[in-house]
Amino acid sequence: MRGTNVLVTGASGGIGGACAELFAAHGATVYLTDVNDDTGRAFTATLGANAYYRHLDVTSETDWADATAAMAAAGHDITVLVNSAGAAMKATLADTTLDQFRRMIDLNLVGTFLGLKTAAAAMVGGGSVINLASLRGVLATAELGAYGAAKFGVRALTKVAALELADRGIRVNSVCPGSIETEITSVSDFADDDVEAYVRSIPMQRRGAPEEVAKVIRFLAADDSSYVTGTDLLVDGGQAAGVRTPKISNEKV
Length: 253
Ligand SMILES: NC(=O)c1ccc[n+]([C@@H]2O[C@H](COP(=O)([O-])OP(=O)(O)OC[C@H]3O[C@@H](n4cnc5c(N)ncnc54)[C@H](O)[C@@H]3O)[C@@H](O)[C@H]2O)c1
Hints:
- By secondary structure, the chain is α/β, with parallel strands linked by helices.
- The protein has 7 helices and 7 strands; from the N terminus they run βαβαβαβαβαβααβ.
- 39% of the residues lie in helices and 15% in strands.
């Protein structure tokens, strides 16, 4: 991936961090961005000379403009954008405050919109954008209404951008992870969940690792996927494939 200039949001850890690490290991120039600056800087320092850290709050249009201007000024015109920054919250719609709902939309959907808008202007030589949607943006999930609405929206934006940017050689796809072991799935909102029962419901009987999502994102960033745009790629251990019926005896069927 030499000659590839990658901007990753939410890159201090989790899926964004795994992407940055994988891209850097394959010779790309990588700009890691986040709001968690201390962790981001320390992590970036482990990735070698072609990895840079910048503060970028994805909800700030100014931060987006500054980050892409800095990349261009350094001679690193952006060729790959990974919109990974995000957060989830768990509550019924009745228990979700307006502020919480707006926060979910702002961070997960407006952040992706600003990234796409910026990328459209900055990717002068074409490129690839990968948006982190979610299985929760494919299958409606009780108690994940605000997050799910944002992620359904991310998939819609992905397809619209793919249509609008195809003639400029910019491909836009989304990745929809199921349950991946990162900070986002260990926050207090999910602490009461019966994780073992949940894992048993996954056809592959395990949660995914951030590196398993990063490899799919790398495929969408690289020429290997040169005819793929406007699609959603599920990385969910089979969860969206359908429903497994519980084992029941033949007499009852
Ligand atoms: N982990 C999962 O199971 C899972 C499943 C489906 C989708 N996703 C999506 O994948 C993406 C990455 O999630 P993750 O699991 O790596 O979570 P994570 O919590 O490990 O990482 C998210 C990162 O985003 C950063 N961030 C938060 N607010 C920000 C802001 N305003 N601007 C910039 N950065 C900000 C955080 O500091 C953090 O480093 C998210 O969009 C998430 O919705 C994750």
